[in-house]
Every structure is written in C-alpha cells, then in structure tokens.
Amino acid sequence: MNKNSGHIDDKLLLRFLLGEASKDELLQVQDWIEMSDENRKLLDSYEAVWAEAGKLTPNPVAVDTPSVWKKMSDRIDQYEEGQKSTKTISLKSRFTLISSGIAAAIVVLFGVYQLLIKQPQQLIVASAEEVLRETLPDGSNIALNSNTNITYPEKFAKNERRVKLKGEAYFEVEHNPEKPFIIEAENAFVKVLGTSFNVKAYENSEIEVIVTDGLVQLFTVNSETMDTTSILLKAGEKGKVSKEKREPIYVTESIPDELFWMDYTLIFTDTDLKKVFGLLENYYNIEIKVSDERIYECRLSTTFSNNSIDDIIEVIAATFEFEYTKENNTFTIKGNGCTEKNI
C-alpha cells in the first residue's frame, strides 16, 4: 500500500466489512477512505472478495417459501418410499420405519412453522400526501415522503435490523455495531451501522441514496450467481442503481433541493445564483430582482436547513458583499457582480 495514502490495520477493515466495527473504528475507516481514491478502491476490492467468498453478512436473499415447502414434501416422500435413510431423534425401539418417517415429517413441519409462521409481527407505516415521521423499535428515526410505506418487524432480529422501503425516506439510524441496519429497496440494498441518509425507491424508478453523515454501503445481489456488487458512500456523496444495469454507481450531479421535502434543506455546491434564486422563488413564493445581471454569475456553495427566506437572503448578501431591499414579497439584490474570489 502506498504510504502516502496512510496505513490501516487489515483486521480493522475486516471488522468494518463484517459490521462489527465500533463507532471510533468507523470514523477511522472514514478518515482513511477520504485520504485517497486508492484507499476507497482497495476497500471496494476487499469487499468484493469477501462477498464472493460468501461471507457478506447479513445474507440479503429472502426466504423462498415455495422452495422450503417443496423440500419438506420431498423428504416426506423419501421416507414413505423407503428410498433414503435419515437420522432422526432417537425414539422407542418399537417404532417402525413408517412411524419414524411420520416423526421426521413432524420435525420438518415444526421447522417450517418456526421459519414461516412464528415470525415477529410485521408493521407497516404509510404516508399519503404529507411527510410522516416515525421512530423504529431500535430508536432510529425516519421521515417518510408522500406516497411512501416502510415495513419492519415489531422486534428486530438478534443479528440485524431489516426494513423494506417503497417510496422515499430519510433515515437517522441509531448506532449499533452488533446489528447492522439493512434496507431492502426494490432490487437494491443499503447497509449501515449508524448514520444519516436519504433513500429514494419509488416503483419502476432508479434507486438513489444520498448520505448526509457517516458511511453507507449500497449493494445489489445477482439472483443467479449470488455475486455482490457494492460501493461505499460517505457524507456528501450520492449513489444510484438503475433499472437496466442493476449495479450501484457513484453520481456526481448535484440537485440542491433533493432533501427539501424532509426539512426544507437546500444544498448548493458551486451553484450559480440564477439557479439559486429560481429555487428560492419557487419554494418561498417570492420574487428576487437584481440590479446587475452579472450577479447571476456568482456561484454559491452552502447548505440551508429549515431557514427562513430572510435568513437565506441575508447569508447570500453577506457572502458576496451585496446589499438588498425588501418590499412585500419582493427582494432586490444590489451589487456589481462578484469579485474574482467569489466567482
């Protein structure tokens, strides 16, 4: 490994991939990833090898109910036809082969019952036209955008916290290195230990994940080969899974108002003021005028979250050393454009 990229213990990377890293260790991995693209690629390659070895946990593949019942039926047939000898729990010596077969069938039936019937009760939270907020059994908080529903067990399993999402939701996941948080969204999966991020997974659309804090693993599983393809997303990054390729990729495009639905968040990254003002006019029902067209060429990089329009205009004016006036719902920005340092 290139020393300039920083050294990290391979065992720490292993604990990270297994979902067993502590909060401090997660921060170490995140800092190490941010040092260079080489580090990110190395971790991606480790994850790929780990997944191919069948060690990716938890297994994202759902139970195939018809297959389970078929296997049970086949086993009963084998007992009845005397085609296969099966070791069972010792019964009294006077039991015949048929009674042993019946006993084995009961054992299988009980296993199926445990697997398919005695599951924790599934709860569904659904939103209509307004944003809905909910707290999950582990203390994680979620905000559901309109026309969204999420399904989760009344009590999470011992080794994971798994939910199913249809629509769009923002997650603030409670940190727990012993129980990774898994989101099933259409044909993709999102795995985290504790962080904040947004997942958009409306039916027949691309899966999109935006990370605002921590690290998130976005991955897909090939249903035929069981191969896993994944990427790691850190704060400020976005990934998606298209319907066609069904593989996660990084997205460089920036859409300032992607999270506006959740808490009036606007994220501007080197965005020209013409676009900024257009979004503000649309969301806050105002009009913004400028004294000089060159003002539109200034580029803004900042985040607003649940701010009033007066606060936002004040920040923009201070950033570029503009002056402004307000009359009713109309703001007039005054200035000569941007100085070289502000462009």
Short description:
The chain has 343 residues and is α+β, with helices and mostly antiparallel strands.
Q: Which key features would you list for this structure?
A:
single chain, 343 residues, 18 strands, globular
Report on this model:
The chain is an alpha+beta fold. The protein has four domains: 3-52, no CATH class; 65-117, no CATH class; 122-251, Jelly Rolls; 260-342, Phage tail protein beta-alpha-beta fold (3-Layer(bab) Sandwich). The chain has eight helices and 18 strands. The strands form three sheets. Strands 1, 2, 3, 4, 5, 6, 7, 8, 9, 10, 11, 12 and 13 form a 13-stranded mixed β-sheet that branches.
End-to-end C-alpha gap: 39 Å
Point out poorly predicted stretches: 52-69, 83-110, 112-117
| Multimer state | single chain
Secondary-structure content class? alpha+beta
Shape: globular
| Total of DSSP H or I helical runs spanning 4+ residues | 8
Largest sheet: 13 strands, mixed
Give the count of structural domains.
Answer: 4
What is the mean predicted local confidence, pLDDT? Answer: 78
User: Which bin fits the share of residues in helices?
Assistant: 25-40%
Radius of gyration: 27 Å
The total count of strands amounts to 18
Strand and helix layout:
Elements lengths: L9 H9 L4 H13 L1 H16 L12 H17 L15 H21 L4 E5 L5 E4 L5 E4 L4 E5 L7 E12 L8 E5 L2 E5 L3 E6 L5 E7 L1 E7 L6 E7 L3 E4 L6 E4 L8 H4 L1 E8 H12 L2 E4 L8 E7 L3 H12 L2 E5 L2 E5 L9
Parallel strand pairs: 5-6, 15-18
Antiparallel strand pairs: 1-4, 2-3, 3-5, 4-5, 5-8, 6-7, 7-10, 8-9, 9-12, 10-11, 12-13, 14-16, 17-18
